[in-house]
């Protein structure tokens, strides 16, 4: 017996060590105590702002944070804290004790997307933010940027505001703002960088990103440079499968079309197109106009017009319309419209979505449309295909739909 106990005593520290791999997060504490510990140990503070429903948050907690190399880096450099931003009936007392602090973080530090990771200096001052997760090495690199004043997001923002004539700071700020999903600052910093360094010198592999970021309106310097150098811009954007016209048309859509969609206005798209073509003949707006029309008529619940808009959108370049989009268009008609012409169009879109991807959800859409169109036998055949390809999680719903089809009951 004594020998067994001794063996266990030897094994237990090994087990404990194994369990401590990964990031060591603080527990049973307060924000004041976290800051005091960070100051005493001269470490930065890392705060994981997460929610219980966020998939990427769960992935970071289950897969990235427990890794030994991640733990080694974060435990060496940070005092680490997890902060749950939502409230659920299953929250324990420790989570509840942080409700007020979580609410303050959301307000004071503009936490609006999840996961958001905040980095504070040893003195408790916010210096950096990371939006979204990532794999271990990439995430460590992002956090490393939060330790260096040259790359800290908040520090760069302050420098940007204090040094309006510094092109290098504007450049760094534009890059940091992009990573932090701060689109307003990203555009502002990129525009300033373009103004400071001169436009056409940015027609390079690195510089093109600043032109894209800085094209905030048809009057911006970046817009003019892109417009006057479309062939070169197309060449530089080729790797990203984009073209100069994509950038220019997006700017004009934001500037001239989106305002028309507000306040539930009735939009005359034909007149809009004529006006834009007259004033901006260098830009082909057909694609983006067709895309916006599908959204507009969807929101208006004008299904015949929606059908025409989708057909127009597909006709422009059906290779650019993803199977997922085709399925969504088709399902929208299935759920909302009984018009035979709309149903036939939706069947065509649904069938096209299956040419590249026989996803069970796409098969289910096609079967439901066949059923709603009156072709019960074919509908049952295709629904059985959906069930055969479905995972266990979705299979139950598909089987229930099949049962309704066999009984002649509505599935919409």
Automatic annotation (TrEMBL):
Gene Ontology BP terms: response to stress
Regions annotated as coiled coil: none
UniProt keyword list: Redox-active center, Signal
SUPFAM superfamilies noted in UniProt: HCP-like, Thioredoxin-like
Domain Thioredoxin as annotated: residue spans: 8-148
Ranges that cross the membrane: none
Signal peptide, first to last residue: 1-18
Pfam families referenced in this protein's UniProt entry, alphabetically: Thioredoxin_2
Name assigned to this protein: Thioredoxin domain-containing protein
Organism this protein belongs to: Sphingobacterium deserti
Phylogenetic lineage: Bacteria, Pseudomonadati, Bacteroidota, Sphingobacteriia, Sphingobacteriales
């Amino acid at each position: 017996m004594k020998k067994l106990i001794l063996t266990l005593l030897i094994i237990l520290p090994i087990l404990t060590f194994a369990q401590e791999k990964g990031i060591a997060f603080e527990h049973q504490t307060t924000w004041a105590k976290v800051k005091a510990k960070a100051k005493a140990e001269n470490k930065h503070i890392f705060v994981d702002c997460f929610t219980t429903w966020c998939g990427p948050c769960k992935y970071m907690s289950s897969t990235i944070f427990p890794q030994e190399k991640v733990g080694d880096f974060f435990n060496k450099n940070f005092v680490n804290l997890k902060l749950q931003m939502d409230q659920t009936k299953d929250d324990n007392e420790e989570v509840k004790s942080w409700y007020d602090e979580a609410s303050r973080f959301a307000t004071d530090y503009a936490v609006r997307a999840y996961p958001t990771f905040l980095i504070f200096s040893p003195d408790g001052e916010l210096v950096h933010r990371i939006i979204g997760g990532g794999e271990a090495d990439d995430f460590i690199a992002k956090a490393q940027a939060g330790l260096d004043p040259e790359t800290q997001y908040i520090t760069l923002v302050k420098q940007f505001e204090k040094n309006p004539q510094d092109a290098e700071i504007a450049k760094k700020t534009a890059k940091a703002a992009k990573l932090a999903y701060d689109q307003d600052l990203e555009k502002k910093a990129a525009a300033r960088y373009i103004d400071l360094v001169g436009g056409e010198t940015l027609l390079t592999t690195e510089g093109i990103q600043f032109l894209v970021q800085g094209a905030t309106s048809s009057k911006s310097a970046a817009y003019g440079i892109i417009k006057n150098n479309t062939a070169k811009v197309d060449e530089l954007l080729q790797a990203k499968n984009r073209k100069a016209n994509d950038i220019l048309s997006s700017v004009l859509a934001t500037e001239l079309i989106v305002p028309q969609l507000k306040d539930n206005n009735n939009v005359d798209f034909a007149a809009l197109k004529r006006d834009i073509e007259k004033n901006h003949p260098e830009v082909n707006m057909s694609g983006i106009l067709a895309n916006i029309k599908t959204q507009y008529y969807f929101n208006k619940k004008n299904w015949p017009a929606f059908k025409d808009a989708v057909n127009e959108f597909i006709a422009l370049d059906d290779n650019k319309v993803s199977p997922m989009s085709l399925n969504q268009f088709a399902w929208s008609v299935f759920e909302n419209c009984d018009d035979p012409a709309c149903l036939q169009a939706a069947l065509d879109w649904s069938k096209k979505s299956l040419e590249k991807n026989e996803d069970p959800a796409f098969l289910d859409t096609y079967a439901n449309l066949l059923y709603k169109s009156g072709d019960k036998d074919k509908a049952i055949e295709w629904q059985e295909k959906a069930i055969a390809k479905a995972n266990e999680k979705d299979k139950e719903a598909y089987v229930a739909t099949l049962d309704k089809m066999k009984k002649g009951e509505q599935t919409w």
